[in-house]
């Protein structure tokens, strides 16, 4: 009916949707049901009807009997398809961090990992303190380093109830493309817009080493999925009847040995739909300047990661144990042997620089 063909239209449907039963692919559609749909297709404008996967001689025989005596439907020169505008979402439309940047504001996003245990009071007290101190959004890791934490989606929903803007990390490690899209649509339904696309750390390096890493797509593929959703369609082409307007970002590691390779990968991410960039923590002022210079032509905001160190022991741990973090020798020297309040003071001083 929607195609309204101006040329002869042939239709060859499968015998319904396949299912996997006892080691074989099976189609459950009966010949009678198949024949009834075939007749309806002919009445809608098809001039040749047949069958594809799952059809048997009995399906074709039933179809032949059902369309016996039918004449091709005369083509109508013009047919219009009308659709109603989707009702606006009841979820509150979240202000865009990109709009704040465009207006000249220095935007601050603070990462606060969801807890590993169920009591959440301390987490929300910290989030509210950060918000009062000037953080424009709280960014929530998605089981970073493959270590289990409370769902960042659930935590984000509770942050929104407190009037705090969440920015969710979404990892390709734990969900296939169906689960990833479901989570993104859930975000849109709840009025959450900001998402950081990540490939994710392999499960074997975390606290559940026997867990399966999915990786249907990587971060570039996830960005392409988000762009497709924003156009109003799922990866499979299903019409969402609305456009989510998700604001997707990507990561960038200035600490990498080969910065040229990182720039090339960043270019692919931006072409795939990234609208902002978040870097790994940087501890070298010159590296911040180099990052700004090398990424300026992309024309997207770059959030530089700043991590106030706590003490000398933490600095050594981050440098040696955490992927993507590199602390230069002169910073190590400044933090060496510092503990407690003295270490925190020096760590903050380095971060301010």
Explain what you see.
The structure is a single chain. This protein is an alpha/beta fold. It is 37% helix and 13% strand. It is built from twelve helices and eleven strands. The strands form three sheets. Strands 5-6-7-8-9-10-11 form a seven-stranded parallel sheet. A two-stranded parallel ribbon has the order 1-4. Strands 2-3 form a two-stranded antiparallel ribbon. The model is unreliable at 87-91 (pLDDT under 50).
Summarize this entry quickly.
By secondary structure, this protein is of the alpha/beta class. It contains twelve helices and eleven strands.
Mean pLDDT: 91
**In what order do the strands lie side by side in the largest sheet?**
5-6-7-8-9-10-11
In percent, how much strand structure appears in the residues?
5-15%
**Biggest pleated sheet:** 7 strands, parallel
Q: Could you tell me how far the N terminus lies from the C terminus, measured between alpha carbons in angstroms?
A: 65 Å
Order of helices and strands: EEEHEHHEHEHEHEHEHEHEHHH
Radius of gyration: 27 Å
Category from helices, strands and their pairing: alpha/beta
